[in-house]
Amino acid sequence: xxxxxxxxxxxxxxxxxxxxxxxxxxxxxxxxxxxxxxxxxxxxxxxxxxxxxxxxxxxxxxxxxxxxxxxxxxxxxxxxxxxxxxxxxxxxxxxxxxxxxxxxxxxxxxxxxxxxxxxxxxxxxxxxxxxxxxxxxxxxxxxxxxxxxxxxxxxxxxxxxxxxxxxxxxxxxxxxxxxxxxxxxxxxxxxxxxxxxxxxxxxxxxxxxxxxxxxxxxxxxxxxxxxxxxxxxxxxxxxxxxxxxxxxxxxxxxxxxxxxxxxxxxxxxxxxxxxxxxxxxxxxxxxxxxxxxxxxxxxx
Length: 300
Known about the structure:
Elements: E1 4-5, H1 24-35, E2 43-44, H2 51-54, H3 60-67, H4 73-79, H5 85-108, E3 110-113, H6 134-144, E4 151-155, H7 162-167, E5 174-181, E6 194-198, H8 204-222, E7 226-230, H9 248-264, E8 269-272, H10 281-299
């Protein structure tokens, strides 16, 4: 059964000026329910992730700055959000959603989070609308509990997973792969285990060819027993911030490659949605919904 983390807290605590495109966190499940791709039983309300689990990834000093709302004005500006208790609560629920989705992935082969993909959060700081790093936290929990021995993080958001790369730069149990726009945020890139920076306007044909070759070689090289996938749709040509040139169908084919690879090789997969900033909200919702549709069709 496809299990999807969703909470009203993913959207509503954000100030009005920050609601678009965050409103997608409500519209994605609404669309999937309306069209019959999922039923209410597919959605689950995640719990707050414990402090103990957060501290497997983030430093105590940084976590206390978040918990007690003690970030400096400069640190707050880097996150992109005004700091509040509601914002921190939202972030901790998102962390719980990705971890619980990982537990469902162990049971059903796949688990998904309507939110997440907070790959710009470092061990000791937040940036780019990311305060805590959900895929990193969940990967570290799985390793600590001996539920995985080799984790592959596939990050296909248009922005490099800089925080994830920093967190795992000295950890052999996790292999980080980021394919992203070369001329995009962050200006200073970190070093993932594998980075593929793409030139502006890279389209479907070239993108999918590179990805196909890379995924197959990575599977052989890394031999993961668990995969996290950051499926941001800011790779679309319509994206205001992305600079790449994928069509909606190309983005769907990208997702198919990752999901099909995991299904054929019996590797549990957890998916977080990541970014999407197209002018037309429909482009964002449809591209994200395609990921869930593929999950339902491929795995169930």
